[in-house]
């Protein structure tokens, strides 16, 4: 393995960006394009390139890659059958648990954390931001879902059983997003890159995942900035609780908008 520690910081950053960029691109192929052959190939290439660059980077990219492989094992869709929800829940849990366990007990690191009780009160600006998230979701989501027709990627929740399964699924995936993409992927990448660059790298994978979940058409124009904001918010607050609150508020509006999109006479509070 070649060490680059004696080279200039800019050169080191450039070399490290190659494997990290390949890893992010593999997320586009695995989740956005759903091409497993090329996706796994690019993922393997990213780890091989990391081996040639830096030992610690290799270890951390391997953790992210492991999570991405688990995610790719089941279709990422809104199939609300018990079987699919169980399988998807299992692989998503492994995608978070395996990197955390390996980091903590194999690497003996305490990098991946999920800070719930930070001991700090949320300032007024943070509370106002929560209101802004709800307002933006209210104005944007119904228009996006209905005009593009992507609401059909989620099932009609007219049936009470489907209604509650959809509610559970939307919220569970929202919490998982922050566990894996922010607290795991973004946190590991920050060890090697400036925050802004680490944030872009995680947002590429984050928005690719959301594309396969159902945010298609011009969805990336919505999900990519959201992923960036979540990373930046976590950097500022250092609070898993806060970023999850942001996400769940947005997803609650999403859930209501999905119900409304399938049944326009329901929830007439929406403008569209």
What can you see in these coordinates?
- The chain is mainly α.
- The protein has one domain (9-111, 118-262).
- It has helices at 9-32, 36-53, 55-71, 82-106, 124-148, 160-189, 195-213, 220-237, 240-262.
- The radius of gyration is 19 Å and the shape is globular.
- It starts with 8 loop residues before the first helix and ends in a 10-residue tail after the last helix.
- 40% of the residues are buried.
Task: Give the arrangement of secondary structure elements.
Elements: H1 9-32, H2 36-53, H3 55-71, H4 82-106, H5 124-148, H6 160-189, H7 195-213, H8 220-237, H9 240-262
Helix pairs in contact: 1-2, 1-3, 1-7, 2-3, 3-4, 3-6, 4-6, 5-9, 6-7, 6-9, 7-8, 8-9
Defining traits:
single chain; 73% helix; 272 residues; globular; mainly alpha; 9 helices
In short:
The chain is mainly α and 272 residues long.
The number of strands is 0
How many distinct folded domains? 1
Average the pLDDT over all residues and give the rounded result: 94
Number of helices: 9
Low-confidence sequence ranges: none
Rg computed from alpha carbons, rounded to a whole number of angstroms: 19 Å
Q: Please give the largest β-sheet.
A: none
Give the helix proportion (percent range). Answer: over 70%
Q: Which structural category fits the helices and strands?
A: mainly alpha
Q: Span between N and C termini? A: 58 Å
Helix-strand sequence = HHHHHHHHH
Principal-axes shape call: globular
Strand content: under 5%
């Amino acid at each position: 393995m070649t060490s680059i520690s004696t080279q200039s910081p800019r050169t080191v950053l450039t070399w490290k960006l190659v494997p990290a960029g390949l890893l992010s691109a593999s997320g586009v192929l695995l989740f956005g394009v759903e091409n497993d052959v090329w996706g796994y190939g690019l993922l393997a290439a990213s780890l091989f390139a990391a081996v040639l660059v830096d030992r610690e980077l290799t270890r951390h990219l391997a953790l992210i890659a492991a999570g991405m492989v688990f995610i790719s094992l089941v279709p990422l869709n809104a199939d609300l059958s018990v079987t699919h929800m169980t399988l998807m829940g299992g692989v998503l849990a492994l995608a978070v648990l395996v990197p955390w366990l390996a980091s903590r007990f194999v690497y003996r690191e305490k990098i991946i954390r999920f800070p719930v009780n930070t001991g700090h009160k949320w300032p007024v600006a943070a509370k106002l931001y929560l209101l802004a998230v709800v307002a933006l979701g209210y104005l944007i989501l119904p228009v996006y879902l209905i005009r593009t027709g992507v609401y059909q990627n989620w099932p009609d929740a007219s049936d009470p059983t489907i209604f509650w399964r959809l509610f559970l699924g939307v919220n569970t995936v929202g919490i998982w997003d922050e566990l894996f993409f922010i607290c795991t992927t973004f946190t590991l990448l920050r060890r090697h890159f400036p925050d802004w660059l680490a944030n872009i790298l995680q947002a590429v994978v984050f928005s690719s995942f959301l594309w396969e979940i159902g945010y298609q058409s011009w969805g990336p124009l919505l999900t990519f900035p959201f992923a960036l904001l979540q990373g930046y918010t976590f950097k500022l607050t250092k609070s898993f609780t806060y970023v999850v609150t942001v996400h769940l508020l947005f997803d609650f509006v999403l859930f209501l908008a999905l119900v409304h999109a399938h049944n326009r006479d329901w929830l007439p509070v929406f403008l569209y």
